[in-house]
Amino acid sequence: MKRLFTIVIFLSGISALTAQDLKDAYRYSTEELTGTARYIGMSGAFGALGGDLSAISLNPASSAVFLSSTASVSLDYRTMDTNISYNNGRTTSNNSDLDLGNLSGIFVFTGNNTQNWRKFSLGINYNSSALYTDNYVARGNSSNSIDQYFLNYANGVPLDLLQLRDDESISDLYSFLGENYGFSTQQAFLGYQAYVLEAEIDDPNNTDYFSLIAPGSFDQRYSHNATGLNGKLSFNAASQYKDFLYLGLNLNSHFINYENATEITEINNNSGSETTEVYFGNTLSTNGDGFSFQLGGIAKINENLRFGLTYDSPIWYNIREETTQYLETNSPQDEFVSVSPAIINVYPEYTLQTPAKITGSIAYLFGKQGLISFDYSRKDYSNTKFKPTDDLDFQILNSEISEKMQTASTYRLGGEYRISQVSLRAGYRYEESPFKANTGKGELTGYTAGIGYNFGNINLDLAYSLASYNESNPILNTGLTDPIRLDRDLSKFVVSLSFGL
Predict the structure, then answer these.
(1) Is residue 150 classed exposed, middle or buried when 0-12, 13-18 and 19+ CB atoms within 10 A define those classes?
(2) Are 152 and 478 in contact (CB under 8 A)?
(3) The CATH homologous superfamily of the domain defined by 7-145+213-500
(4) What's the pTM?
């Protein structure tokens, strides 16, 4: 029986790191609609309003609008319903989470009304920016085989690197290749050792390979199991100048935790196939921390009309990743082969710089009876950068980002109507796709509704949010690139409790 063990290896160069792609660039550059129930009930259209603790995450000047110190806590129940299409196959999935969506508080210090700077506020705000729980299975038939993935990596690699020496184990050679040649050569090694491909000639210098899987039809299954979150902790300072101007600053600390396990199963009965079953598994573990800042202002034109403007800096993330892999195959003669190195690939830390964002807002207040508010945001996703930029693979990826991603706008509209102590809310939002072609994430349309009750020093608020969008992602980045289409409905129920301090 084989003795399995785990080795941690440090790959010598970033060039070995192929885990990053456009999905990662988008995943860590965006946020879901999260925050207090009042904020969500109006689709987050608070850039010119302030007066809500979650509005601090949108416009840091918001905290200076408060008349007194306040704290708030919010819980989210999040559900993702997905219809999955892969070639001729159709499946569905449902994922649910209970999450601490927001926890925040501000302290307001008021001065003399005869002074120019009349109010000063300090705040802290935690938002769960995005949840990554996403479990689904895609099934379908294809005329493309996974063999092309391994052939693309193998062609050009000397056969001598892929063959075991005397007393050398699968784990030993996989580790050696990772340390000295990188991820691509490891993929070639897996394909060769698991009998997905074979050398054209039995010569150590051979660099050409052919598939042991005959062309035809392939029954394929892809399982995707992801979890994790992206959180933001903001330290806020704001001030009020006279009666018409509010200015604020946020210093933000970000953190990422993301884990993903995938398996591709492929079965064929094609005439001439020496390998008829393939099971290819991968895991990815990502941890990161980052920093950003926000500058914002709110201008009170008169008692009814307000304008807001916010600048969000890029987020500078430091990201660390680990991966594991296995490949198993079977033949018509039931000759099962398992290539499971039991190696953890630990990659060098790298930097991800997300794009900056600018938001303009306008709000109109109908006295104390109600209000209507509109926000417009613009973000150029083509400015996303993986660093160090002098790394060749990152240069290629950054060029692909510039070519395939684009500037995207977000529109948010929200309203509130008060009847005595009860507040009724509704909102709408529309987000353009950050991708130029029909790949990645498409346009998002969302609707929200909410209700709140004022008990005096305590407010209880409820909200519901529904957003619909689609995604189209290839199974693998090379070789087997048949797209999986995901039609998603993301819904949230939010309850918030706010109280004076």
Answers:
(1) buried
(2) yes
(3) Outer membrane protein transport protein (OMPP1/FadL/TodX) (2.40.160.60)
(4) 0.90
